[in-house]
Amino acid sequence: MKPYQDITDPSLAKALAHPLRTRILTALEERTASPSELAAELGAEIGVVSYHVRRLASLKLLKLVNSVPRRGAVEHYYTATARPQITSSAWGTMPSIVKQATLSAAIEEVGSQIAAAAADGGFDKAEAHLTRTPFTVDEKGWKALARELDALLPRLQKIEAASRQRLARSDHQGEQTAAVVLMLFNQADAPALPMPDKQHRRSSKTSRSRRAS
Length: 213
Known about the structure:
Blueprint: E1 4-7, H1 10-15, H2 19-27, H3 35-42, H4 46-58, E2 62-70, E3 73-80, E4 83-86, H5 88-92, H6 96-119, H7 139-169, H8 198-212
Parallel strand pairs: 1-4
Antiparallel strand pairs: 2-3
Helix pairs in contact: 2-4, 2-6, 3-4
């Protein structure tokens, strides 16, 4: 996998909020493709995809790796330079509307990948993990949870780096792709249960009494 690139500039983080850009970056993580190939794969117009590819390239998140003449035109092939990761400081200064757009794009992409993996047996192994664990914490506890997740990702990257070395020595025997999704968020308040309608209950009781008489 491509290495992570910390995004510290809020304006750059804002540029990643478009859902199609997220899908393009994901599609080009481990391969090269042209805008026309991406358009067919993502079900989008080639002009729109080409615009977003050029924008991502200008932000140094994609790089041009090949140009092939085809039928009087030139087809350009790109790959991702890194997987962008928005830092806490950049996230904290982003406008709420940009945060919502970024979250929507990320959740849509994660959801589609999880659904595809589930349909393809991606959770069949005994070690597959899927939990949702609510915690009740104070502000200090919230920050401690955040630090734990921040520290976990570098440890996971070290595991991947060691795996890559072993795979290179074994001619990639046993190679498999895995995905880890980490989230920390404040839960929405549970909807209040409707209070019983006392008048309705009295009316029902009266009706039963009348029927009994």
